[in-house]
């Protein structure tokens, strides 16, 4: 199929970086686990066994060399691992979440010049840089009761931390926010982020980090472990888009954090969609329940980071090899409300299970651009960018419109997004590749009667019936994406 990847004029919103939430809304993000993405020497054979906990050699310079691979899928932003100096234990340090000195960089990933060069290379392409930051805790190699607080910088005194305790009740907010993560051995000492001194230090640090390395956005790790009042001043000091990790199944609990920061990761949608798409016996009830709740409870659904894999969760392909189910889940993540996020390796159909098996080296794939999912993700990004571009001058844009469900049953869901005259209709299912072809009638599609529409993945064309209905054929359990034929002229898509 012929299509053109749309690049928004003047890199979407100009060439000024240190981007706002408004600017991030149109982006799609490729998540990079820095140690496992690309090496400075460009090797595609360097050893990195599945499940290995230690440094495999990925660097910022390696990422810079492989930006063609990322941009080739249509991504215009990357999110990289935390960049600060780590504890000496490599089994904890390779991923970046075990800080020792926040004012020093992780030299396993490269130098300050390497990080600056990565930011510049991204900006030269009109892409954004998001950096993971961890204000909740530091890390210590040893027994919790023997923690050497003087080893941390700048939080080098016991008074900066909560007393030692570990979370035993994940429904107890006080425990979640005041107790330590990790265990008695190799704990993550929990900073007292209610302390004005601690807050001021973090605010000073984040302002300097963003400025020194031309960072466009931050992903805030373990946000649910920090009291909400911490985030307004932290976000203001950063001066860029902040996306918080609130790893909760409960939509109301997660959405509450968006009252204190720009965006949150869509964990409620992650849980319900993965459960639906990895099991052909599952029904759509829970996924739809979250869909509606998120629309009502989140302050701005366009700033929710939607995903189906990350470095903390098992890869989707560890549940099922069914490619139709994978593609349906990807279509759901990338075409609903929110900022879509794809974790490195999804495009190569990596199958690692729980951490650390889900942290495979991407270089061992050879960075294949002919991989089925690489091409499918490229299509999804191109559809989203086309929809954004075509509706940009309308009163209601693609980005500011809320996706709405126009049809559902136990195993099929159709949702529409965008203004009526430039709408994308996405039809997803969890029937699997082995299901027989079947017809699906959508009584109220959202398209105007007699509109000519094109199915963008197969290039099939059809006309909406007199009362706005559509009858579709689902083939091999594949997703369907429909768009007005009149808007395809000059796009190169499906022969236009």
From TrEMBL:
<feature type="disulfide bond">
    <location>
        <begin position="48"/>
        <end position="56"/>
    </location>
</feature>
<dbReference type="Pfam" id="PF00128">
    <property type="entry name" value="Alpha-amylase"/>
</dbReference>
<dbReference type="InterPro" id="IPR015340">
    <property type="entry name" value="A_amylase_C_dom"/>
</dbReference>
<keyword id="KW-0325">Glycoprotein</keyword>
<feature type="binding site">
    <location>
        <position position="219"/>
    </location>
    <ligand>
        <name>substrate</name>
    </ligand>
</feature>
<dbReference type="GO" id="GO:0016052">
    <property type="term" value="P:carbohydrate catabolic process"/>
</dbReference>
<feature type="disulfide bond">
    <location>
        <begin position="459"/>
        <end position="494"/>
    </location>
</feature>
<protein>
    <recommendedName>
        <fullName>alpha-amylase</fullName>
        <ecNumber>3.2.1.1</ecNumber>
    </recommendedName>
</protein>
<dbReference type="InterPro" id="IPR017853">
    <property type="entry name" value="GH"/>
</dbReference>
<feature type="site" description="Transition state stabilizer">
    <location>
        <position position="312"/>
    </location>
</feature>
<dbReference type="GO" id="GO:0004556">
    <property type="term" value="F:alpha-amylase activity"/>
</dbReference>
<dbReference type="Pfam" id="PF09260">
    <property type="entry name" value="A_amylase_dom_C"/>
</dbReference>
<feature type="binding site">
    <location>
        <position position="137"/>
    </location>
    <ligand>
        <name>substrate</name>
    </ligand>
</feature>
<dbReference type="InterPro" id="IPR006047">
    <property type="entry name" value="GH13_cat_dom"/>
</dbReference>
<feature type="active site" description="Nucleophile">
    <location>
        <position position="221"/>
    </location>
</feature>
<feature type="disulfide bond">
    <location>
        <begin position="255"/>
        <end position="298"/>
    </location>
</feature>
<feature type="disulfide bond">
    <location>
        <begin position="165"/>
        <end position="179"/>
    </location>
</feature>
<keyword id="KW-0106">Calcium</keyword>
<dbReference type="GO" id="GO:0005509">
    <property type="term" value="F:calcium ion binding"/>
</dbReference>
<keyword id="KW-0119">Carbohydrate metabolism</keyword>
<dbReference type="InterPro" id="IPR013780">
    <property type="entry name" value="Glyco_hydro_b"/>
</dbReference>
<feature type="binding site">
    <location>
        <position position="312"/>
    </location>
    <ligand>
        <name>substrate</name>
    </ligand>
</feature>
<keyword id="KW-1015">Disulfide bond</keyword>
<feature type="binding site">
    <location>
        <position position="359"/>
    </location>
    <ligand>
        <name>substrate</name>
    </ligand>
</feature>
<keyword id="KW-0732">Signal</keyword>
<feature type="signal peptide">
    <location>
        <begin position="1"/>
        <end position="18"/>
    </location>
</feature>
<keyword id="KW-0479">Metal-binding</keyword>
<dbReference type="InterPro" id="IPR013777">
    <property type="entry name" value="A-amylase-like"/>
</dbReference>
<comment type="similarity">
    <text>Belongs to the glycosyl hydrolase 13 family.</text>
</comment>
<feature type="domain" description="Glycosyl hydrolase family 13 catalytic">
    <location>
        <begin position="31"/>
        <end position="384"/>
    </location>
</feature>
<feature type="active site" description="Proton donor">
    <location>
        <position position="245"/>
    </location>
</feature>
<keyword id="KW-0378">Hydrolase</keyword>
<keyword id="KW-0326">Glycosidase</keyword>
């Amino acid at each position: 199929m012929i299509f053109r990847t749309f690049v928004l004029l003047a890199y979407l919103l100009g060439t000024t970086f240190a981007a706002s939430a408004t600017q991030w809304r149109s982006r799609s993000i490729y998540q990079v686990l820095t140690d496992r993405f690309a090496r400075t020497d460009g090797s595609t054979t360097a050893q990195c066994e599945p499940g290995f906990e230690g440094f495999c050699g990925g660097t910022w310079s390696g990422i810079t060399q492989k930006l063609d691979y990322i941009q080739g899928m249509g991504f215009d932003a990357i999110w990289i691992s935390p960049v600060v100096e780590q504890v000496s234990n490599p089994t904890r340090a390779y991923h970046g979440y075990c800080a020792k000195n926040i004012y020093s960089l992780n030299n396993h990933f490269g130098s300050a010049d390497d990080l600056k060069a990565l930011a510049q290379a991204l900006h030269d392409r009109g892409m954004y840089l998001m950096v993971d930051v961890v204000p909740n805790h530091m890390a210590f190699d040893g027994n919790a009761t023997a923690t050497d607080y003087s080893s941390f910088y700048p939080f080098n005194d016991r008074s900066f931390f909560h007393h030692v305790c570990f979370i035993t009740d994940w429904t107890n907010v006080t425990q979640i926010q005041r107790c330590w993560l990790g265990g008695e051995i190799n704990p993550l000492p929990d900073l007292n982020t209610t302390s004005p001194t601690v807050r001021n230090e973090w605010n000073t640090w984040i302002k300097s980090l963003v400025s020194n390395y031309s960072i466009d956005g931050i992903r805030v790790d373990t946000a649910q472990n920090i009291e909400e009042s911490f985030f307004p001043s932290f976000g203001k000091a950063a001066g860029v888009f902040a996306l918080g990790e609130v790893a909760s199944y409960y939509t109301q609990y997660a959405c509450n954090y968006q009252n204190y920061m720009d965006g949150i990761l869509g964990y409620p949608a992650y849980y319900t969609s993965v459960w639906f798409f990895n099991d052909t016996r599952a029904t759509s009830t829970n996924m739809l329940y979250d869909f509606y709740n998120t629309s009502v409870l989140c302050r701005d659904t366009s700033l929710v980071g939607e995903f189906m894999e990350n470095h903390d969760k098992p890869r989707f392909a560890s549940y099922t090899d069914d490619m139709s189910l994978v593609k349906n889940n990807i279509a759901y993540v990338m075409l609903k409300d929110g900022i879509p996020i794809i974790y490195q390796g999804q495009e190569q159909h990596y199958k690692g299970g729980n951490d650390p098996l889900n942290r495979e080296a991407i270089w061992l794939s050879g960075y294949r651009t002919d991989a089925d999912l690489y091409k499918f993700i490229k299509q999804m990004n191109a559809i989203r960018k086309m929809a954004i571009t075509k509706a940009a001058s309308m009163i209601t844009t693609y980005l500011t419109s809320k996706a709405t469900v126009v049809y559902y049953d136990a195993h099929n869901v159709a949702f529409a997004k965008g203004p009526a005259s430039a709408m994308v209709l996405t039809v997803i299912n969890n029937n699997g590749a082995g299901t027989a072809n079947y017809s699906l009638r959508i009584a109220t599609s959202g398209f105007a009667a007699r509109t000519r529409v094109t199915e963008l993945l197969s290039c099939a064309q059809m006309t909406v019936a007199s009362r706005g209905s559509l009858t579709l054929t689902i083939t091999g359990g594949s997703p369907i994406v429909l768009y007005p034929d009149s808007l395809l002229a000059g796009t190169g898509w499906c022969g236009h």
